Sequence to fold (149 residues):
Amino acid sequence: MTRVKRIFLKRIVLVRVLFYGSIILFLYTTIRYMNNTSFAKNITPIYFLKNKGDTNFFYNLAGVVKPGSINFIRGTDEVKFTLTDFDHDIYVYYKGALPNNFLEGNTVIATGNITDADKPNIFVSIKLMTDHSYNADKWLSNYSIKFRS
Fold:
């Protein structure tokens, strides 16, 4: 009888360890997901006109770098530029190394957050990517004359 009892107690301990371990793993994954910037919302600048932005949330802001808007801050590795979807413009500040193909007129995805939820025209980026797979044709086909001038 004691042998059966011992086996039964080992199974109970094993089930408890697996149960609590899965709860800990679930909570850890949830917390990592909430703080991870790669799970940010994909949006365009017009999103902030239609919706109220959250300053505590990371966004992947996609758009085209407006011609003539790139300004390098002298003595630092900071850059500011205007990102547009040709309906709304937003100013982006970024500090760090720029991608090799970062040029005016290219499609860019900036990961970061807005500075003010009531006046969302300034975006602080922590990661900058040029993305040729992002479909900018929906903007450029309608505004190709406006873009070239």
